[in-house]
Amino acid sequence: MATAKPLPADLAAGSFTIGEARLGGISPWRAKAKDLHVPSRGIRVPVAREQTLLARARPYTRLGTPDTVSFFSAAEVHSFKLPSQLASRRLPPSARLLDLTRSGTAAPRRKGVIGHRSPLAPDHIVILDGVPVTSMPRTLLDLAGTGVMSLEDLVVIADDLVCEHTRSRHPRTARVPLPELLDFAERQHAVAGLRLLRKALGLVRVGVDSPPETRLRLLFGRSALPAFEPNFILLDRHGAPLWVDLACPEYRLAVEYDGGHHLTPAQQRSDALRNARTFGAGWGQLVINTLDVRNGEGWVLMRVRQALRAQGWPG
Prior knowledge:
By secondary structure, the protein is an alpha+beta fold. It has helices spanning 9-12, 18-23, 53-57, 71-77, 136-144, 151-162, 178-187, 194-201, 211-221, 265-280, 290-294, 297-310, and strands at 16-17, 36-37, 43-46, 68-69, 98-102, 113-117, 125-128, 131-134, 229-235, 241-248, 253-258, 284-289. Helix content is 34%, strand content 17%. The protein is elongated.
């Protein structure tokens, strides 16, 4: 059996269309060789080739009618903080379905694709490495209309998008400033998910560093507790700033969420210093960790109420 000749470097790098194969001098016979996988008609990909979702999606957007990567595929491209129950979508690229949106009269219909049909304004699309993808605000709106995202899920994603602060070790710049998200939602007309998105944006706060912090903040907010502020800055006894994940200024209680990375010796030393500075400033402190969260909301609220009462809260 004859051995298929090597592909040109640009085609060997990842997925390509049959049209691109012809332009690269690939014969119809070569395009049927066993070292090429056919994920969908008109597309080839070198067998066992590892590639990003964006690279895999590229040829699907170049097969005639312009299609745009959207919904959950766009959310993955944008690294949205999707809820854990959607982790099953994170399959190997070869087994993952693509969400594509078409502005025309019919949704895309082909193997490996979840097709959507919806008008997309020019500012609803961004080009990433040559691939059209729905913008972050538009993707958030699309997710809100799927019926599988809760209000809290959307707040978690949006909190991460708008997060910005100047903490000395880990400063962050907003990927989408909150005013830009609010303006986007205000300009949209009645479409699926818009009401839910607007409600979620009303709960978004700038400066929240992680999904657990968002979920704790929302839990406190619906549980008749005193108001907590995210990314609060208090001054220690030397006048140096100290950032608090969630703070209740009225009762001078700082709540910190410590994830798995806080188990390292270096981080534990840093946390011990943080705790000493907080107490030295005359504040109480409560540390919530992953085990507390696993024990459920009731357990977390019990600990928070106990800490608040120790600070003088009469509730």
